[in-house]
Specification:
Length: 363
C-alpha cells in the first residue's frame, strides 16, 4: 500500500511539473544608428507549459544619451499556452556611444525573465566642402574655365550628397562633369569634384555648385566670371604708322602683308622685325632689309628695288635713286653719260676736218 501511494505521488509531481507555466522572451538585433536617428526595439514574449495571466513587458531605465516617447511598461494580458505577443519601443540616439537596454517579461505565478539588447550610436554624418578653386576670374569666348572642390564626410555615419550646377547655361557649355549628381559618402570618406566650362557668350555669369546632404546643408560654391568677346576690334582712324598697324589685341591684327617681316602683338602694340636677308619670299625672290626683291646673280643688273606693294619690277620709264632706267621689259640699264656724247662729237668734228683737209689737198 505504501508503494502504491508513493507511485501516485510521483505521478502527481510529474504532471504538476509538466503543466507548470513560464515565459520565454526574445529581442530583435539593433543595427548602428547615428546621432539624432531612431531605431525600434521589439520584445516577443511567449507562454510555455500553461497559460500566464497579467503578462507585461518592461523596458528598463534608459541609459543617458538615449530617449523614447513610449511607455516603459507595456501590458499584454493573458497568454494561453504557446501563445506569443510582441511590443515595441522607438529609441532615439542623442549622443554617440555604445548602449545596453534591458527588457523584463513578467506574469502571475511565473518567474520574471529578461533579455539585453545592444545599440551603437555613431556621430552624425557631416559634409564639409574644401579646396575650392576657379581657374580664372576673366576669360574670353572660346576659352575654358575649370572649377574644383572636395566634399568630405567628417561624421561617423554615411550621408548622401547631391550637387546641382547652375548659373552658367547662358554663357557657358559644360564640357566635363555632370550638371547634377548624387552619391553616398561613408564615414570619413571624401570625393573630388571637377567641372570644365567653355565660354560661348560674353557676360558676367556666376557658376554655382549647389550642395546638399541628408544630414546637413553645406555651403554652396561659386565662381564669378567675366567673359569678353574674342572679336577683333576695329582699328581706330589714324592708328597706323608708316602703313603699319599700331594698336592690337592679337598677332593677326598686325599683319602688314609683307613676307619679309615678322609681325607680333606685344602689350597691345604691333612689333615688326625684318626676317633674315636671303630668306625666300616668292618665286625667284628673296628678302633684303625687310623688302622682297628679285633674286639675281649679276651684280651690274642687281638694281631692283621694291615698290610700295612689294613688287620688285618698276614701271616703264621709271628710274630708281641710282638713276637706273627701266625699259619695256622692266629690266634696268645704266643711262648713257652725257660726257661721252661731247667726246664723240668732238672726235667726229676732228675726223671730219682731217678728211676735208685731205680731200682739198688732192684737188
Amino acid at each position: 500500500m505504501k508503494k502504491l501511494l508513493l507511485i501516485l505521488l510521483v505521478l502527481i509531481t510529474i504532471v504538476s511539473t509538466a503543466s507548470a507555466a513560464s515565459l520565454s522572451l526574445s529581442l530583435n538585433s539593433l543595427e548602428a544608428i547615428s546621432e539624432g536617428d531612431t531605431i525600434t526595439l521589439t520584445a516577443t514574449v511567449s507562454a510555455v507549459g500553461d497559460s500566464v495571466a497579467n503578462t507585461s513587458l518592461q523596458l528598463g531605465a534608459l541609459p543617458a544619451g538615449t530617449a523614447t516617447s513610449d511607455s516603459l511598461v507595456q501590458t499584454i494580458g493573458t497568454l494561453s499556452s504557446g501563445q506569443s505577443s510582441s511590443k515595441s519601443w522607438t529609441i532615439r540616439g542623442d549622443v554617440a556611444g555604445n548602449y545596453t537596454f534591458n527588457v523584463t517579461a513578467s506574469g502571475t505565478s511565473v518567474s520574471d525573465t529578461f533579455q539585453n539588447a545592444s545599440l551603437i550610436v555613431n556621430t552624425a554624418a557631416f559634409i564639409e566642402v574644401s579646396n575650392k578653386t576657379c581657374s580664372a576670374t576673366t576669360t574670353s569666348t572660346g576659352n575654358t574655365i575649370t572649377m574644383n572642390f572636395i566634399v568630405k564626410n567628417v561624421g561617423g555615419s554615411p550621408a548622401t550628397v547631391t550637387i546641382n550646377m547652375s548659373g552658367y547655361t547662358s554663357n557657358f557649355t559644360l564640357t566635363s562633369g555632370s550638371a547634377s549628381s548624387s552619391s553616398t559618402l561613408s564615414a570619413g570618406s571624401q570625393s573630388s569634384k571637377s567641372y570644365v566650362f567653355t565660354a560661348t557668350t560674353a557676360g558676367t555669369p556666376t557658376i554655382t555648385a549647389g550642395i546638399t546632404s541628408t544630414k546637413n546643408d553645406p555651403t554652396d560654391q561659386t565662381c564669378p566670371i567675366t567673359i569678353t568677346s574674342t572679336t577683333s576690334p576695329t582699328t581706330p582712324t589714324g592708328n597706323t604708322v608708316g602703313g603699319h598697324v599700331r594698336d592690337c589685341s592679337s598677332d593677326s591684327n598686325c599683319n602688314d602683308n609683307n613676307p619679309c617681316t615678322v609681325d607680333t602683338c606685344t602689350n597691345n602694340s604691333c612689333k615688326y622685325v625684318n626676317t633674315l636677308n636671303e630668306t625666300t619670299c616668292g618665286t625667284d625672290k628673296v628678302c633684303n632689309e625687310g623688302n622682297c626683291i628679285l633674286k639675281t646673280t649679276n651684280p651690274i643688273l642687281d638694281k631692283n628695288t621694291p615698290g610700295t606693294d612689294g613688287d620688285t619690277n618698276k614701271k616703264l620709264g621709271e628710274t630708281d635713286t641710282q638713276g637706273t632706267n627701266y625699259g619695256q621689259n622692266g629690266e634696268g640699264t645704266t643711262p648713257f653719260d652725257s660726257t661721252w656724247i661731247i667726246v664723240i662729237i668732238v672726235a667726229l668734228v676732228i675726223i671730219g676736218g682731217i678728211v676735208y683737209f685731205i680731200l682739198q689737198k688732192k684737188a
